[in-house]
Specification:
about 850 residues, alpha+beta, six-stranded mixed β-sheet, six-stranded mixed beta barrel, globular
Length: about 850
Amino acid sequence: MFRTALRNVLAHKARLLMTVLAVMLGVAFVSGTLVFTNTLSNALQNSSAKGFDQVDVAVRPGPGDDDADATSKPPELTRALLDESAKVPGAASAIGVVTGFTAIADKDGHLIGGGFQSQGANYWGDKDARYPLKDGAAPKGAGQIALDARTAERAGYKVGDTVRLSVDGPVLTPTVSGIFTTDDGNVTAGGSLALFDTATAQRLFGKAGTYDEIDVKAAVGTSQTALKAALDKALPRNAVETTTRDRLADVQAKSIAASMSGLKQGLLVFAGIALFVGTFIIANTFTMLVAQRTKELALMRAVGASRRQVTRSVLIEAFVVGAVAAVTGLVAGIGIGAGLKVLLGTLGAVVPDGPLIVTPGTVGAALAVGILITMLAAWLPGRRAAKIPPVAAMSSVHATATTKSLVLRNTLGALVSGAGIAVVLAATSMKGSDGQAPMGIGAALLITGVFILTPLLSRPLIAAAGPLMRVFGVSGKLARQNSVRNPRRTAATASALMIGLTLITGMTVMAGSLQQAIDKMASASIRADYVVSMANGNGLSPDVAEKLAKTPGVTAVSPLSDGAVLIGDTSEWVTGVTGPAIGELTKLTVDNGTFKVGGAQVVVDEKVAKSRDWTVGSAFTVTFADEQKQRLTVAGVYQGNELVSGILLDNTLLAPHRTDGDDHADQRVMVKTSDGVTSATKDKLAKALGANPAIKIQSKKDISNEIAQMFTLILNMLYGLLAMAVLVAILGVINTLAMSVFERSQEIGMLRAIGLDRKGIKRMVRLESLVISLFGGVLGIGLGVFFGWAAGELLGASMPTYELVLPWARMALFLLLAATVGILAALWPARRAARMNMLAAIQSE
């Protein structure tokens, strides 16, 4: 039986090629994902580990007193703690580290790096082993900085150049005193790093006289563990936490692995989709191969082969096909992994240097996935082959499935689909994350049920295309009849395309609806012409609002400032606003009372009011960060949203109670102007703020465009990943048509003999492919719209402005894509059918 299986594989090389390609693509995606993420993770870990070379134990602020409340000042690392750390037995040296956001502009005034990757730190003393100088000297005084070599090269800066930068405040113009090299992870990932002298860094980052971390270097002969023990003994308990270099590296490695895990899982999901789609092709291929070998298998049974031996022969074929596909997929995957690393570089992301990592786990996963998927998909056709009775050898073909034989399948499909719809509908009535798991289960059940029902659905849906098929005469009529001749085969072929289009359509519906909801939220809640914020999401300095208020043409300004207070025994965040102006800058729906903020009167959103059982007129006492108390009264209850929510009170009440660490509490500043939204007005506001590269000035349209760009980027990435599943689906259509043409050789020969020319044969095969592809497209788009609606209902509970938006143009494009898939997939099978010798075809079996 083993020799027979190998002979069959070699005899059907061309027919099994598409199956090999389908499995290979899925395996390549899996192995490529593993190679890429392992390579990137290894490079980042090696790079970050180098950053700990100059520290044996890191001292950081501790948790503080367990009895302290939310308004208590956290522990700080002072100069006294630094000196004490340096004197600990076994310590060779101690360095005080200060870090913070530092936006550096290039020579065109644009921000270098990506906002969150734009960092600043302090240079310690005349020589800092962490940052070896490549050129120039260490920075001294407020007028000098040192730049990392990568940033200097990208921006074209050299020693002596003047640089524009911002540290959560006004624009500074220091001179580049030196250029240094570093293995800092942010820099190697494409960010920037600027170094100031310690006193300047402390002042700029709001750490006057304190540090973010103290790095202690061990003396020769002292271990990390011994130094940590000595520091723990010498330094105040709870005021500090100590961590060894090995522990830091281990935590960093786990953090990198965790961040890579999300990317890896996301890519593997799409690889799984491609493999899932590929199973239809494999099952289809082996089903047709078994059908074509009915007489051969029946004769084997007649001469003594058992059912188990017949099944085993089919599975051996699947094993050989899967092994070949897995090996070629692994090789292709290694190439994909290397290609993705290069692609990251071309997109602007800097990936640390490192070797390509191909682990035994990657090799094992590729082989296991390729072989197991193929054998599992071939098991059912092999089982059917074993059931072929020996008497079938007397007939030319084995009995095909009839409508009656599909009754059990249709009943099962209806039950599974009904259960899926019920679970999805139930999930839509749940709140937030509670409905996510049921939604996923319901979606899986519904897709499975529709797949089971696809043979039943194929007849009426394809029949609906009958009037259109009549336009093409005999070829159209034959194409329609051929497409429903074997419902199971048609279903398996169309289902591969259906799954890809379901996911694509569902995500498009969700993205479009979410984008419109956020646009509505912005337009419905903001009257301001512009919203000013930091590029990295940090808070703004209070002088930003002051400068904007003094700008000619500005009619109203209000910062939105965050602050922590105590109400009773619980902590609560409040937002400070300019009371007289906030009404002009926002348009929030008021459920009760009036939207009046000023003096001791505040407004609260409906969630806070409900949780604390407040109504209009309710009075409560807050304790500010400086432990001062204030009695407040609720003037109104409004509907909060993602932009404005919680307790709004006048900044004249909140600002006097700010602590030293709250000098950048303005999360954004709203601005209204007499000229409205114009490019000249925006330039005027930017000039008033010193053309600061760290500050964003956005109109409502700018905010919407930024959101649209984000959704477009995500969608394009998902489209690219799902293209793999669509490509596999195309291979499935080609495979089905090619084998169908082979099965119908006699029929095609007879059609040629009675007068149907080659063009007519080509048209028949192409129309058959077109009908099958459009059938899968219609099902996929329909399911995608349903899932998009259901997911929207789940999100709508927390987003009042959400409503379903059907992207008609995109859906028409997806249907056109399905039609294009059908036409392209039919090119080779149609040409093969048309070139068939009619006499040889008539004589074939």
